[in-house]
TrEMBL record:
Organism classification: Archaea, Methanobacteriati, Methanobacteriota, Stenosarchaea group, Halobacteria
Protein name: Cell division ATPase MinD
Residues spanning the membrane: none
Organism listed in the record: Halohasta litorea
Residue span, CobQ/CobB/MinD/ParA nucleotide binding domain: 6-209
Residue window of the full protein shown: 1 to 233 of 544
Lineage: superkingdom: Archaea
Length: 233
């Protein structure tokens, strides 16, 4: 049975897209059939992070009912299937976020579907939280980010969704993980992803860490995340 995760936080710039791309590629590397969807319909950048430039239909065409969702699926790196978005304002206006339900259903023969969620609290960002089987919260250890991520956790609860846990990104040895667990963000921290230059470089060249820098600390951290989240070793 397919397992659907939304990768979410109300705070922008905390590593949601990075985590969706690398969790997706790392999971695909274990032999799982993985689809990643760019659910950030206002600021689509998941496709670029994985080096996929759509030459035809995008998620936005599927959300506006112009094409079947599978027509917007592209083969990405490391065997991951990517459903990229359109970066134009016109496409944004025509897209109906509610249609994400049908898009996710179209990939129900995959093992995992990961949805990269946009920042903010809105209808667009709420739909993925209820479409998913579970929500993976992403935050840096900064107070503002934690406060905003806690809001996403509460919103998920209100929508009847389930929180799988949290990932803390861009951490260093001084990051007070214990304090964070018992403080602002009421979620289990599954894994911390260290600040790592390889992450920025890999995103810039549009390649996941599994192939760009498999021996980096961040690549190892994403492998731990796969195990914590799915039990796959
Ligand atoms: P979001 O999708 O939450 O807006 P992104 O995934 O786009 O955030 O990440 C924001 C920025 O942080 C990007 O420039 C990305 O390369 C950088 N980044 C994310 N995780 C790390 C990390 N572990 N180490 C270094 N830079 C990171
Ligand atoms: Mg993003």
């Amino acid at each position: 049975m397919v397992r659907v995760y939304a990768i979410a936080s109300a705070k922008g710039g905390v590593g949601k897209t990075t985590t969706t791309a690398n969790l997706g590629a790392t999971l695909a590397g274990t032999g799982a059939d993985v689809v990643v969807i760019d659910g950030d319909i206002g600021m689509a950048n998941l496709g670029a992070a994985l080096g996929v430039r759509p030459h035809g239909a995008t998620l936005h065409d599927a959300l506006s009912g112009d094409v079947e969702p599978v027509a917007a699926a592209y083969e990405g790196p490391a065997g991951v299937t990517v459903v990229p978005g359109d970066t134009s304002l016109e496409a944004f206006s025509a897209a109906d976020p509610q249609q994400l339900h049908g898009v996710v259903e179209a990939f129900d023969d995959a093992d995992f579907v990961l949805i990269d969620v946009g920042a903010g609290v809105s209808h667009e960002t709420s739909v993925p939280l209820s479409v998913a089987d579970a929500v993976l919260l992403v935050s840096t250890a900064e107070r503002d980010a934690l406060v905003d991520t806690e809001k996403t956790r509460q919103l998920t609860e209100r929508l009847g969704g389930v929180v799988a846990g949290a990932v803390l990104t861009r951490t260093d040895e001084a990051t007070p993980v214990e304090e964070i667990i018992s403080g602002t963000l009421t979620a289990d921290v599954l894994t911390t992803i260290p600040e790592d230059e390889a992450v920025r470089e890999s995103i810039a060249v549009g390649e996941p860490l599994v192939s760009y820098a498999p021996h980096s600390d961040a690549a190892a951290a994403y492998r731990r995340l796969v195990t914590e989240l799915t039990g796959i070793e």
